[in-house]
């Protein structure tokens, strides 16, 4: 008497070879890669592993370097460049303000500036320091 599984496969018109293919379909990719150890000789595997490990090490070092450079550039911009840009724009505004005394008079009358004007206050406070 034949086993039930083989009889059922033969009744569907399949040969016993299909049972071998279904077994190989049940294998995972990891199992297939591990099976390649028998096919590929040791020296070739060692070369491939060395190449892969060096590639990943270079990638890791490169990513770390890029992260460090990004941190340095970001903190430098926050601490130096942005305040410098703010002061340059403020100085431009003060120069434009001094070029147009009529606008300064209008701002003083509307109460946006004190009686002496902001430019007077900042010059006096810098002189005191």
Write the topology of this structure.
Blueprint: H1 4-11, H2 17-25, H3 29-39, H4 42-99, H5 101-110, H6 118-128
Main beta sheet strand tally, sense and closure: none
Class by alpha and beta content: mainly alpha
- Ends apart, CA distance between termini: 108 Å
What overall form do the CA principal axes indicate?
A: rod-shaped
SSE order, as H and E? HHHHHH
**Beta-strand content:** under 5%
Mean pLDDT across all residues, rounded? 76
Please give the share of residues in helix: over 70%
The overall strand count is: 0
How many whole angstroms does the radius of gyration measure? 39 Å
Low-pLDDT segments, ≥5 res: 1-19
Our count of helices gives 6
What do these coordinates show?
With 129 residues, the chain is mainly α. It is built from six helices and no strands. The chain has helices at residues 4-11, 17-25, 29-39, 42-99, 101-110, 118-128. It starts with a helix and ends with a helix.
In short:
The chain is mainly alpha-helical and 129 residues long.
Please give a handful of descriptors for the protein shown.
mainly alpha; 129 residues; 6 helices; 83% helix; 0% strand; disordered N terminus
